[in-house]
């Protein structure tokens, strides 16, 4: 029996990406196409269906009622197709696990600890997926992830909180030259700043505002769009960067960095284990999630001991 009617697959992929990002431009960047190509494919799909899927607003896309209903089904089908494809492609006799995280988590927290997990689970073959935006990812791209979230996970994902957020400035011991800084002193130092597009994390403006300086205007800044670059600049002595407890612990323990001030701040966020809500959890993902929970407990106890010492 012929399956009909079926729209062109590229049109469905373009529609799903545009729906997820709320933007033809960002969908085009993800799919390595032009913005006009995404727009044409969505228009072709709308013509095929005889229904408008989006309301085109000046700065965003908004799903119509028909678009919302169609999006739920299309995303579920595409995710299922991707999962089935991945299962077929996996090497026989091996258990593979795709772990997603941001670049900062990958460099600072995950890679130093992976040897422990691999030693406990030598039969699991790991694949790391580094993407700074969980919202830009689909459930077909990874089995489990570790992400900083301010308000909990997107609807497509389940989550378990591992660490509460605590943010404080750090720099090299040599940069301070024996000084002890108050928050107000930081305004005259070189601050290493994550650019505006990455503001899911705390900004210097928010940190200073929480420490009694809502109108502070730093005099010297170095800006980058990736946190590991800023951290390396701090290690090289170029300035002061905001750091997240637990993510930065190894650098503090090894003496590469020290706290620039005892003050700290939080937006109420935290680090979470996240996984696709609609998928059956593979045994490897369950083992990794249990390991993440175990590691967070070890880190919390180590932090308590450090605070008492």
TrEMBL record:
Belongs to the LysR transcriptional regulatory family. Residues 7-64 form the HTH lysR-type domain. Keywords: DNA-binding, Transcription, Transcription regulation. InterPro entries: LysR-type_TF_proteobact-type (IPR058163), LysR_HTH_N (IPR000847), LysR_subst-bd (IPR005119), WH-like_DNA-bd_sf (IPR036388), WH_DNA-bd_sf (IPR036390). The keyword DNA-binding applies. It comes from Cupriavidus gilardii. Transmembrane segments: none annotated. This is LysR substrate-binding domain-containing protein. PROSITE patterns: HTH_LYSR (PS50931). The keyword Transcription regulation applies.
């Amino acid at each position: 029996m012929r399956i009909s009617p079926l729209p062109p697959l590229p049109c469905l992929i373009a529609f799903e990406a545009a729906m997820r990002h709320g933007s033809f431009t960002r969908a085009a960047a993800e799919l390595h196409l032009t913005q006009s190509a995404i727009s044409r494919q969505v228009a072709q799909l709308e013509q095929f269906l005889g229904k408008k899927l989006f309301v085109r607003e000046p700065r965003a896309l908004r799903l119509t009622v028909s678009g919302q209903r169609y999006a739920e089904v299309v995303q579920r089908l595409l995710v299922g197709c991707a999962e089935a494809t991945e299962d077929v492609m996996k090497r026989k006799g091996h258990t593979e696990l795709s772990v997603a995280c941001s670049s900062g988590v990958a460099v600072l927290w995950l890679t130093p600890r992976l040897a422990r997990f691999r030693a406990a689970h030598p039969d699991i073959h790991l694949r790391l997926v580094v993407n700074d935006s969980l919202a830009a990812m689909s459930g077909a791209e990874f089995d489990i992830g570790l992400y900083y979230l301010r308000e909990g996970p997107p609807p497509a994902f389940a989550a378990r909180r591992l660490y509460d957020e605590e943010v404080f400035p750090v720099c090299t011991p040599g940069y301070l030259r024996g000084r002890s800084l108050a928050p107000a002193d930081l305004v005259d130092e070189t601050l290493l700043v994550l650019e505006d597009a990455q503001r899911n994390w705390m900004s210097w403006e928010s940190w200073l505002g929480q420490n009694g300086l809502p109108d502070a205007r730093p005099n010297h800044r170095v800006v980058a769009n990736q946190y590991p670059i800023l951290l390396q600049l701090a290690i090289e002595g170029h300035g002061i960067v905001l750091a997240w407890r637990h993510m930065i612990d190894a650098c503090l323990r090894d003496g590469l960095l020290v706290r620039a001030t005892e003050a700290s701040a939080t937006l109420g966020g935290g680090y979470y284990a996240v996984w696709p809500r609609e998928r059956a959890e593979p045994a490897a993902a369950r083992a990794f999630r249990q390991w993440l929970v175990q590691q967070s407990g070890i880190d919390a106890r180590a932090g308590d001991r450090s605070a008492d010492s």
